[in-house]
## 1
Amino acid sequence: MAAFIILFLAALFQALRAFAEPLTVDAYTVSDTFSDLLSQSQAQNHSLYTYPTDLTRNLVPKALHSHNDYWRDVPFWSALSVGAISVEADVWLYNSTLYVGHEASALTPQRTFQSLYIHPILSVLQRQNPSSDFVTSPTRNGVFDTTSDQTLYLWVDSKTEGASTFEAVVRELQPLRDGGWLTAVDEDGTVQPGPVTVIGTGNTPLNQVQGIQPRDYFYDARLDLLNSSQSNITASVSPIASVDFETAIGTVPRSGTLLANQTATLQNQVEIARAKGIGARYWDTPGWPISVRNSVWGQLWDAGVMLINVDDLVAGAGFGDGGNYWTT
């Protein structure tokens, strides 16, 4: 647990470097003397200023998807440190073990699905659901202390052969399953929300999700096919559907403002999904120029997209933007 907390704090420091300025309350800078008094008070009364579930206190959950999360300096923890509610892991099956990386040449023996995602997520959930004299029945708090019913979306992108890789994914979810942490579908098709919602993507076969009940994993449907070849997919199969941004919408003009027909396509796809109770996500959105990136984020949000796909977590969370948060 201590190692995981150290990693989290390191990620938190990186994410919040933009705030490396004097502490302020409203418009007033807190004096050095008062800061010293606060520090001394904390040191002398440690138990008064901490509590069992305070690991993620002050983290506001944000509708951000940490795209290619395994590229972060500290996967999972970096996303958690800015409040992102969705992370993504590319997995490769070799000798019954799932390794994480964007391509085969990036894999290492140490970087596994268990070490980078299952174990860290489990450690946070265990901390957010402590046993004490005050807890009279089992709890199912999520990873965010500020909003304990917010689920964490864990997207698992199968890179190797779909059927066998996803079987391994389901198997490796067992520690989360044993704790009762996974969003699940009952035999009658009822969805039971949980602290973690697993969505299979990439080479994940639809027939290993659709039609299987009970189960505790879901499928990433194609957002642009929900009114055609995937029209029979429901929210209990795919709570969020996604698609490549340029494939579905097209190239963004240099101004950063979508053309009228692009906006119409965007709104139509989001509305079709919404009518089914399915959220929308677009991946590989423009990353540069920054003005275009921010403009697209704002237009996606205004259109009702459920998760904003971000490569720059700090910018996506609005840190260090000088007040120009996703301005167009």
Note: The first strand starts at residue 24 and ends at 25.
## 2
Amino acid sequence: MAAPQPKRKRADTAGVAQPAPTANKHLQAILSLPDATIAGLLLHAAGQHPDVAANIAAAVERVTAQNDAHAESARVIDFDHYSKTAWRAINLQYKSMKGSYQYNASCGVQDDVVGCIEDIRKQCPAGVSYGTKKSALETLRKIGKTVCLSGGDVIGHEVQKGFHMETCLEDTMGTLGGRMEELVELSKGHCVFETLDEVVALLEGTKGEPRTSEDSDDDEEGSENESEE
């Protein structure tokens, strides 16, 4: 005659097996102890059993990662100073130089502008807070507008030419998400950021906050330019 099969644990109404009575008893006993006593028992168990020590280390790592992710999602970084840095590099830093000297300096200015964009990208990993993402997109929009509107002298013209092929701005904006229709129209007139319209098309229809009059008010660049000079 076949041996009888062991009985299954009785499941609750949700279909989840209930803990054994002994486990419940241990849990109640542990929860009744002071925190210092529990810590002492865990410390002793970790010293006697490597598997317990490994479980404790894994739990600490997991909780630390969760706390770090929460802190990162709540942190807001202000990137506005990068737009001012880019504007000064293009419009002010070499303004008093003759055309030939400006031409020689233009590659360095191009690198400075690209460096601002790359710094923003590096500080916006996945899971970055909405406030940080919003500041990054607004700053990138300002940098792009500066490039588009600064073609009146040698440095501005050369920087525009550099962005005929350089796509770091639209790549970064595409990663972050955003609405950039105005910048697309400006870029078309200056043959820069040539794939920006593809980024906008990709982002079209994504969820976002409604635009306000404040979002579309770009007069601050003009006033900023005057104050810088």
Note: The mean pLDDT is 79.
